[in-house]
Amino acid sequence: MTALHPVRSAPPPGTDPLPQGGSPSPAGAPLPGADLLDAVLSGTPEEEQPVTHVHRMPVRDSRTLPWPAWVSPELRARLEAQGVSAPWRHQVEAAQLARDGSHVVVATGTASGKSLAYQVPALTRLAEDPRACVLYLAPTKALARDQLASVAGLADPSVRPAAYDGDTPMEEREWVRRHSRWIVTNPDMLHRGVLPAHQKWSSTLRRLAYVVVDECHAYRGVFGSHVGHVLRRLRRICRRYGAEPVFLLASATVAEPAAAATRLVGAPVVAVTEDGSPRPGATFALWEPPLTERTGEHGAPLRRSAAADAATLLADLVERGARTLAFVRSRRSAESVAEQARHVLRDRGRADLARRVDSYRGGYLPEERRELERALSAGDLLGVATTNALELGIDIAGLDAVVLAGYPGTLASLWQQAGRAGRAQRESLVVFVARDDPLDHYLAHHPRAVFGRPVEATVTDPTNPYVLGPQLCCAAAELPLVPEDLADFGGAAAEARVEELVAEGALRRRPTGWYWAGRGRPDVDIRGSGLAPVTIIEGDTGRLLGTVDGDAAHATVHTGAVYVHRGETYVVDEFDVDEAVAVVHPESPEWTTVARDVTDLAVVAPDRSRSLGTVTAHTGVVDVTNQVVAYQRRRLGTGEVLAEFPLDLPARQLRTRAVWLTLDERAVGRAEVDDAELPGSLHAAEHAAIGILPLLATCDRWDLGGVSTALHPDTGAATIVVYDGHPGGAGFAERGFAELRRWLQATRATVASCECESGCPSCVQSPKCGNGNEPLDKAGAVRVLDVVLDELATAEAAGEDPADQDPADQDPADEDPADRTDTAQEQPGPVEDDLVF
């Protein structure tokens, strides 16, 4: 990548102007953020530069309050020894609320000292009551281990803080249960290891004073709905032993924090949101790699890859002494970006720096993760390419820069990742590098969508029957359910689900309550898929390399797939679906692999509809059948398809929720698309809509799937469907239905503004299209979206009530649609995560 000059865009109102230029920093020290950006962009012709906008984030001064009188002199002394001389305002407010017995959520910025807000009241209680206990829950192992070290530095020796998770050796677990008074764990272990064995944990649970739920915004969608029920089960069991613990929640990025935390805990929660911590200035650049002469599927132009630009940026920043995290979108990309950065540094004669670059992701063995965390925290590593496994991870002091290789799926995650820089009270640099993707393209050219709006509302649906039913079974297996319990688990929805579970034979009704009728314990995967992770084994040696999420396995470790681990490339020799094992051998081919699939979708029950003249919007329940049927080999670097091979994998069934649009013949006529153009127009609009929905809901395009058809058998019309890729739904489709106009306006703007001629990955091509991105009609998609938006505007201008309508009250189309049967689809897929169990 050649160096470039940045565009100096005017910042939004209320922000500081971006400083021009800058003087070099002292020898050996990294430059401030604005100067770092100038340094890596210097020397490139204006017409080749990729920066579309530069935003200056202003400095914020601190506001402090005195320590509350109830904080012991001993704890104050330990805090002062760590450099905490006076607490910030939000720390005192949250600590006092918790001290007074209120459930509280601290929703302030990244690096604002939220840990202290819950550590101070919790440690004070432990000092006052030598029998009291604290349970700390984290969404990732890296965060849990970091917080364990933090509290160990403040706690009295009698507290004996310890971890109880999947990495804890069996011989240590009994010690933790008997002796630790600050237990660090995660929702998975609470669900599987603590609550089902509550009799063994009774001494801890009856003495439980506080429950800390860190980074609570991570609990969203199906996973968040499950975690909400796990916390309700915990409160129920604690009441059984006479305890009513106070819940302390923390999140840097959550909309409507009091409401979100209340839904999660199942009890009223007070929010503290006014941030009293200081914040150093930051330079935030939006960066879109330019189109190149290379072409992908069907001759579509390709941009320079976000991964390649991120790797070169990582090398540039490391070479300038800047400690940098590069966040990427997949495990494979983490390995690839780190290796590319090392290659750049070696080519520049900086092999010494190449050794200080590595990757970090979920799926590594515990000892590998621990060593990487130690090296990064100690400064032995200067640059790390990571998945979102470090988004909520260890407190890394002194990071100078963050590179985001692609939109992380939600604005909440974007700010969480960006906030990892700037902890040394020195101006930092954040660079968002847009991928070839509709949403990334939109954000790169609409800075107010990044800097001018609040984070998304957390989407959960605790009444999802695929969540509620299994959780009620878990609760009944722990203690018989009684009618008074059901209010916490959803009231009327829980009552109806209990009756269904009795009819299904899962629960048994007795005079004293409802009992679990199955053998053993209910086997419930709170991460939503219910599929066991697939183990990756090297065939020649039998060595365990790592794991892959079960829902991702068919597309990523099928026979013939390329798998990357710690920079080493392997090819899958055999994928045993039944045993959840993939056997691989080391190989470095000049190609990568992409899975192909087929999808069928049937409408089960539309429950809300909105008539818009010639267009109707619906949301409801659908059945999706998906099967991976083949994979392509694509040349590295260019994306050129080399060959396609069939696969024999079982189909997967999914009942979920969807939002869909139907267009009658009049709408199709107004869009001026003929029979030949209609399938490609709908397909292109579907792809773009899936790519943009994460702008409005806390989801990723890989959480979604879609189908488009010129004549759907269940609707009798041209139809575009977007569905949640989770059993029972996760609330994303309903969010699209509720925000239909905003969603489709952004979709139309993305497609129309893209500079390609006939469609590319930045607008209408999808990286996971089961039909190989064929057919696609970019111009037709714009015309179809214009018609839908025009009908929406007309309905709203006429004052028509856009609220829910009963589908049975909708009139059928005046004329029968033409007999068209072309169907295209985009399947949901995995989001990279740091599995904690």
Structural description of this entry:
This protein is an alpha/beta fold. The chain folds into 5 domains: 33-58 and 280-451, Rossmann fold; 73-272, 3-Layer(aba) Sandwich (Rossmann fold); 465-516; 534-589, no CATH class; 598-798, no CATH class. It is 32% helix and 22% strand. A 7-stranded mixed beta sheet has the order 1-9-16-15-12-14-13, sandwiched between helices. Helix 11 (306-319) crosses helix 12, helix 22 (678-692) crosses helix 24 and helix 22 crosses helix 25 (778-797). Residues 1-28, 801-822 and 829-837 have low confidence and may be disordered.
SSE layout:
Elements: H1 33-41, E1 51-57, H2 73-81, H3 89-99, E2 104-106, H4 114-128, E3 133-137, H5 141-152, E4 162-163, H6 170-179, E5 182-185, H7 187-194, H8 202-205, E6 208-213, H9 221-240, E7 246-250, H10 257-265, E8 270-272, E9 282-287, E10 291-295, E11 301-303, H11 306-319, E12 324-327, H12 331-347, H13 351-354, E13 357-360, H14 366-378, E14 383-386, E15 401-405, H15 411-418, E16 428-433, H16 438-445, H17 448-451, H18 465-478, H19 492-504, E17 507-510, E18 513-516, E19 534-538, E20 544-548, H20 550-556, E21 562-565, E22 568-576, E23 581-586, E24 591-612, E25 615-635, E26 641-646, E27 652-663, H21 665-670, H22 678-692, E28 704-709, E29 718-724, H23 732-738, H24 740-753, H25 778-797, E30 823-826
Parallel strand pairs: 2-7, 2-8, 3-5, 3-6, 4-5, 6-7, 9-16, 12-14, 12-15, 13-14, 15-16, 19-23
Antiparallel strand pairs: 1-9, 10-11, 17-18, 19-20, 21-22, 22-23, 24-25, 25-26, 25-27, 27-29, 28-29, 28-30
GO biological process, one term: interstrand cross-link repair
Keywords: ATP-binding, Helicase, Hydrolase, Nucleotide-binding
Biased composition (Acidic residues): 798-817
